[in-house]
Amino acid sequence: MSEVKEYRYFLTYSGVRMPLKLVEPLAESELGNRNTYFRVSYDASGRIATCEKLVYGEVELSHQYAYRDDGSLMHARVELGDEVTEVDCDENGAPLRA
Questions:
Q1: Structure pTM?
Q2: Which of 7, 27, 51, 71 is the most exposed place for a label (fewest CB within 10 A)?
């Protein structure tokens, strides 16, 4: 049996660092009037686990995050269409460059 996720919804995000900083919360009742919005799930510690950009009901962009015990970002998986980017992060949550 798969786990049921609870989502929160947002209009957009700010900044360029991961995890994305979602802004302008939307109520689920407002989604019918939107062509584009972000759907976000959280882990047990309240950190963003997944962030998906939906466009006309289809996932266009997806971020999946993993964290260290201290709460810093350890890894991000970014999917844009068929393109997948795996990003490891240093102890400060900054992307490591290969």
A1: 0.89
A2: 27
Query: What is the tens place of the pLDDT at every residue in 29-77?
Result: 999 989 999 999 999 999 999 999 999 999 999 999 999 999 999 999 9
| 38 CB neighbour count, 10 Å cutoff | 23
* CA distance linking residue 37 with residue 98, whole number of Å: 32
Pairwise CA distance, residues 54 & 68, whole Å: 28
| Residue 36 · residue 51 · CB < 8 Å | no
Q: Is residue 12 classed exposed, middle or buried when 0-12, 13-18 and 19+ CB atoms within 10 A define those classes?
A: middle
The H or E element containing residue 62 is strand 58-67
In the three-class reduction of DSSP (H, G, I as helix; E, B as strand; rest coil), residue 29 is classed as helix
